[in-house]
UniProtKB/TrEMBL annotation:
<comment type="similarity">
    <text>Belongs to the inorganic phosphate transporter (PiT) (TC 2.A.20) family.</text>
</comment>
<feature type="transmembrane region" description="Helical">
    <location>
        <begin position="44"/>
        <end position="61"/>
    </location>
</feature>
<feature type="transmembrane region" description="Helical">
    <location>
        <begin position="132"/>
        <end position="153"/>
    </location>
</feature>
<keyword id="KW-0592">Phosphate transport</keyword>
<dbReference type="GO" id="GO:0005315">
    <property type="term" value="F:phosphate transmembrane transporter activity"/>
</dbReference>
<dbReference type="InterPro" id="IPR001204">
    <property type="entry name" value="Phos_transporter"/>
</dbReference>
<keyword id="KW-1133">Transmembrane helix</keyword>
<keyword id="KW-0812">Transmembrane</keyword>
<keyword id="KW-0472">Membrane</keyword>
<feature type="transmembrane region" description="Helical">
    <location>
        <begin position="219"/>
        <end position="240"/>
    </location>
</feature>
<protein>
    <recommendedName>
        <fullName>Phosphate transporter</fullName>
    </recommendedName>
</protein>
<feature type="transmembrane region" description="Helical">
    <location>
        <begin position="330"/>
        <end position="350"/>
    </location>
</feature>
<dbReference type="Pfam" id="PF01384">
    <property type="entry name" value="PHO4"/>
</dbReference>
<feature type="transmembrane region" description="Helical">
    <location>
        <begin position="6"/>
        <end position="24"/>
    </location>
</feature>
<dbReference type="GO" id="GO:0016020">
    <property type="term" value="C:membrane"/>
</dbReference>
<dbReference type="GO" id="GO:0035435">
    <property type="term" value="P:phosphate ion transmembrane transport"/>
</dbReference>
<keyword id="KW-0813">Transport</keyword>
Amino acid sequence: MESFSLILAIVVVTALAFDFTNGFHDTANAMATTISTGALKPKIAVAMSAVLNLAGAFLSVEVANTISKGLVDETGIRPEVIFAALVGAILWNLLTWLVGLPSSSSHALMGGLVGATVASAGFGAVHGDVLVTKVLLPAVAAPLVAGLASMLATRFSYGIAGKAEGEATRKGYRVGQIASAGLVSLAHGTNDAQKTMGIITLALIAGGSIAPGSNPPTWVILSAGLAIALGTYIGGWRIIRTMGTGLTDLEPRQGFAAQTSAATAILASSHLGFSLSTTHVVSGSVMGAGLGRKGGVVRWSTATRMVVAWLLTLPAAALVGAGAESVTDLGDWGTAVVAVFLIASSAAIWKISRREVVDHTNVVAENAEPAGVVTTAIAAVTPPPTGTVTEGLTATIPAPAAEPASATPPAATV
């Protein structure tokens, strides 16, 4: 019993560590566009997002129930399996954070859980219908639906405003963007914080601490909300830079359209119990907003890297989770080996990240990625606006031609 209590405590602590990484990994979802357009200062933005993430954690438990009751057979899961699943999810979160790619923390957790469960109890312990309908299908549909909605909203906002570009218009959209960013943060708390609630609840059921089918206890809801809020406040500045300036260039009205569309999709999915990736939704919304403005450009090389990371998330986390489960199955010493591996790997990733520090002081630095062929061609043929002076251009006015010398000498004066 003492040994079991120890492994259960390790699982809970590791789950909260994952929740912390989820927080700073997904801060960009709510605040990247708000920071990039200048609507809020970086530190104020992440503080606001942290508070609303905490509040959102108390609004619903539907997503938590999807994980603790629906995805895998909760009666055949040991706490060591959940620990192995969390190892796969945490390492994938840290690796994608290191390279600045906004991958899905949700899918990392789902992949780790599925891989560890299959390694422990076989494929029969995974509920395939739930995996398809509440994880995989939303993963494909969410960015497409959110992107289309954001593109239409952006075009509508430019259409009704016409050519109004005064300071009052920009200020109004900034205020709207702050409100919509707050809504995304609240929605993120209702969806992503619940995933950790669900995984801790599943561990408690596996350990016999609570009855199968139970909802998350209050202390689980509070601790998960606090962990994701703290991670959010730390700020995942590398991913904020990618989402805010590396994917496209947004004006305040585009940011408003993107965040409103994303918040609507996330809140709707939380109500239905879909374990939706907020990263997929927000990324799709940002790209849609970029395409919705006339002359807007999406940096497809960055978008391609993001999609590749999305495709790899589930299988990569599943492989690590399965490998970790195989080691923990060897006994207590195997669990200790996996724990040491997780700590050492996390420390190594953090050490590598110190070689190029990205924080609130340089998160909105100019994007270093080249513009690409199409963007360069458009810029080359587009004349500068009338009445403006383009920096770096000089005009040369040719001097008037000199009067030709007369071939007839002047008449002599008598």
